[in-house]
Amino acid sequence: MASISQPVPPIAVRGTSLWALAWRQMWRSRMVMVCGAVLAVVVVASVLAPWLAPYPYQETNLRLGATPPSLGHWMGTDTLGRDVFSRVLHGGQISLAVGFVGTLVSLVIGVLYGSIAGYRGGRADEWMMRFVDFLYALPYLFLVIILLVFFSQSILMLFVALGLVQWLTMARIVRGQVLSLKHAEFIEAARLSGTGGAGILFRHLLPNMLGPIVVYATLTVPAVILQEAFLSFLGLGIQAPRSSWGTLISDGATVMSLFPWLVFFPAAVLAAVLFSLNFLGDGLRDALDPRLRLD
Amino acid sequence: MVVRFILRRLAISIPVIFLVATTTFFIMRLAPGGPFLSERAIPPEIRANLEAKFGLDQPLWVQYGRYMGNLLRGDLGPSYKYPERTVNQIIAEGFPVSLQLGVAALAFALLVGIPAGVLSAVKHRTFVDYLTMSVVLIGISIPNFVLGPLLIFVFSLTLYWFPPGLWGSPGQMVLPSVTLGMLYAVYIARLTRAGMLEVLGEDYIRTARAKGVGSFRLLWKHALNGSLLPVVSFMGPAVAHLVTGSIVVEKIFAIPGLGRYFVESAFSRDYTTVMGTVLFYAVLLILANLAVDILYKFMDPRVEYQSPELTG
Q: Which DSSP state fits A138?
């Protein structure tokens, strides 16, 4: 064997961070890139809806009525003659905003709650997590429905209500992470050098549990979007003439046998976004989990 | 041991029910509006009489005390929207329908999900596996309020195979059960696959195979039991989601179940019906979670009976 006698070239040892590895693995998967592209297109188009939409989303044209997709209205028009494409774009603004803000609310509550419980430990931890267990056992969406029906059906209420539903799992994940990290030596060192609880949390604990938090947040966004659509379907979400994907599907479903395009386009966009977010969340989890790494 | 565990859990549940009742009561009462303030104006004298009849003219804390007193005796009060009926009657009428729907959906989910997951794990990294997992991801991304109309469109309005709504005959049960169960079917398939892949690598499977256990028996008797544990623990949250999902499905298919009553009564501020439904579902979910925990212990003898688990 000739190769044995050859001097082994020195291997350049360069540390690769978890995030760099994750990025590399994500980049390698074509499917992940496709999902990211779909998501980027939908997000950008929704944000730019006021400029991209060919018609104002609330502009009715009763003489036109419901028409199938055509060159002028390539997703067709609804029973009031409104352009479906424009309404899907504007609906995307609402649905995506609800998804991201709801996730943000759940993120803030869940991370704070979970890390306080985990860091405090002992009795406080036990009671705080038992409270989470209690809430898990409740018909939570029923309370959300009650809140929305009995108070206002404003977008703000929707953000708060959906964020309130979602923080429980985040709190559990963060608590588990804190518990496993808090006796690590670098935390002990920080504590010994006089860092306060908040300092330890934000400077030392948070960066080290970013992976699971990011993964779970990615999976929370589609869940919140879905819940907004669910509430809209029940007539509790965004009110007309504004639209979200949920209200568009809800309205379209009632006249589906006559005008199937009214439900098809918003449902397809919603499904594509949910699929992409779920796929990205899964991919991110695989990429960040060193046990699953193939190479 | 089991009896003590059950009693302990039930004892913990009592304050939960109390908390739910109190929260719901005050959320509803602090909100503006009332059951007799509808758009169709009722003469003020009649409204006053109605409110007096149901005790709504009393101070809030008197009403609260009276409601909780009746609740202890299992009396959920009269419905405001259907004055001739009590909330107990409404639940007794609506719940059996919702229960049938839920059980049928769950049965569909298990019967499709578990075999699909096992197949996918056995054929790991083959076309069958990729196909199943793609179907799973698509299934997760299609909400039931899209799937329902889609199924109606294809199987009722185009193919005329199943009726598009209502409840009673077996034919009418197919589409709603599939609509409600699809999400759980795909989740169960995914969990079964993951559990199965893990279990198939274990030593005891290799031992069983070495001792000559046939591959069918190996899969269904030895491996499946161990790989279903994640599925069992998923059942707890699944029942909760099934309940909320049935609200939508009952609306799509015009099924006279409890979920529809709940939404309608919330819109019409029918305080007692809303309260009754929420409390009923809270009790149901607590019992379902308890049943899941007992089942889990039954399947995995390593688990100890404890007060609610604290680890995430």
A: S
Inform me whether the C-beta atom of residue A142 falls under 8 Å from chain B C-beta atoms.
Answer: yes
Is B23 in Cβ contact with A270 (below 8 Å)?
Answer: no
Domain spans of chain A, in order of start: 21-292
Q: If you write DSSP's letter for every residue of B239-262 in order, what string do you get?
A: HHHHHHHHHHHHHHTT--SHHHHH
Q: Say whether A139 and B289 touch across the interface (CB within 8 A).
A: no
CATH assignment of the domain containing B181: 1.10.3720.10
Helices (runs of H) and strands (runs of E) counted in chain A = 14, 0
What local confidence, expressed as pLDDT, does residue A56 receive?
A: 78
Among residues A133, A144, A168, A158, which one has the least CA distance to residue B24?
A: A144
- Does B115 contact A at CB distance below 8 Å? no
What is the tens place of the pLDDT at every residue in A121-144?
888 888 888 788 777 766 677 778
Among residues A199, A206, A224, A193, which one has the least CA distance to residue A97? A224
The torsion angles phi and psi of B70, rounded to 5 degrees, stand at: -65, -35
Tell whether domain A21-292 is in CATH 1.10.3720.10.
yes
- Sort out which chain B residues have CB atoms less than 8 A from A125's CB and list them: 310
Nearest CB to A271; choose among B146, B149, B240: B146
Q: What ipTM was assigned to the predicted interfaces of this complex?
A: 0.76
Structural contact between residues A163 and B46, judged by C-beta atoms closer than 8 angstroms: no
Domain extent at residue B123: 92-258
pTM as predicted: 0.79
In a domain, B35, yes or no: no
| Contact present, B281 and B243 (Cβ < 8 Å) | yes
Number of domains in chain B: 1
